Amino acid sequence: PSQQFNVTSYRATTVAIITVEVFAGMWINAFLVCVLCIAWVKKKTLNSNEKILLLLGCSRFWYLCFTWISHFLSKIYPKYLYLHHILQLLATIQTFFNYSNLWVSACLCGFYLIKIANFRNSFFIYLKVKIDRMVPWLLLGSEILALAISIVIYDLTETVQNSNHTFTCQENFWEARIPMDKYFFSSIFLAGFGYAASFMVVIFAAVFLLFSLWRHKRTMQTNSMKDLSMDAHIRAMKSVLSFLVMYSINFLCLVLTITYAMKEENTMTLVISIYLCAFPGVHSLIVIFSNPKLEKALLKILSCVKCE
Predict the structure, then answer these.
(1) How many whole angstroms separate alpha carbon 114 and alpha carbon 26?
(2) pTM
């Protein structure tokens, strides 16, 4: 009985913490989407940065939504996961929005690099000129990649459910005792490649932005001048570096989800779940405070709430 109580208490604590994080993150991303949609209606158009942020906010909102549904069902009503392919659909949708979140956020870092950094390389100048036309195609490519990987995950869950009848309703997909066949390893390799590729884009953007800022600062000191591009460099660097730190931890947690896939619930799986649910909301908050218009809108709403 005491062991049963500990398991129940663990699951209740996990659901409670994740629920708070998810709803906070959903509110932050819903705010981001609403502000951008209002600006879209007023201006009848969106610039490239706003297009990326709009898709990023939508991806994160729905990722958090389906993550909470998945956690809630797996901890409170696990038997419902195995009715009418509910597990497959949840895993597929969650994977799609997760990869959409990762790749669109990587596009945001690349966009900051191309727009703000100053390099005399002819290819870099070409990218700077063409970046606004490239953004819609980059976003489309991100969504296609996310869709392709989610289809693979759907196929994987179907294969696992058909070939493995040993796991019970008390275990969700990532906690089941999955047979280590070649199909499973190839799917995990594909998922890891998606994580690693987007992570490399973020590292690349952070390193080159830092190098550009260092060169620009030296030029300004030599000429005893100050200009607005220095502030733009610093704002972008704060956003990208904070994202790099968070993305590094997020990448580690995503790798650990594979390591702990076949192990029972423990403190490490709880910590991983908490961070993965906190990441979309916290980073979106950083993005808001690095954008003067979004920051002003958020502070205005918070001041109204405080007055009431």
Answers:
(1) 29
(2) 0.82
Backbone region of residue 224 per phi and psi (left: phi > 0; alpha: psi in -120 to 50; beta: other values)? left
Measured CA to CA, the distance from residue 186 to residue 181 in angstroms comes to 9
| Rounded Cα gap, residues 25 and 94, in angstroms | 15
> How far is the C-alpha of 78 from the C-alpha of 71, rounded, in Å?
9
pLDDT (tens digit, 9 = 90+) per residue, 254-286? Answer: 777 766 655 555 667 777 778 888 888 888 888
Which long-range contacts link 268-275 to residues 24+ away (Cβ below 8 Å)?
270/10, 270/13, 270/14, 270/17, 273/14, 273/18, 273/71, 274/17, 274/18, 274/21, 275/249, 275/250
Measure the CA–CA gap between 222 and 225, rounded to whole angstroms. 8
The end-to-end CA distance of the chain, in Å, is: 48
Q: Over the stretch 210-264, which tens digit does the pLDDT of each residue have? A: 887 777 667 666 655 555 556 666 776 777 777 788 878 877 877 777 666 555 5
Amino acid at site 205? A
Q: What tokens appear for 125 in the block?
A: 């100048």
Residues 6+ apart with CB under 8 A from 80: 73, 86
Beta-carbon contacts of residue 250 (< 8 Å; ≥ 6 apart): 275, 276, 279
Dihedral of the alpha carbons of 206, 212, 214, 216, in degrees to the nearest 10: -150
Query: What domains does the chain contain, in order, with CATH numbers?
Result: 1-307 (1.20.1070.10)
SS (H, E, C) 21-69: HHHHHHHHHHHHHHHHHHHHHHHCCCCHHHHHHHHHHHHHHHHHHHHHH
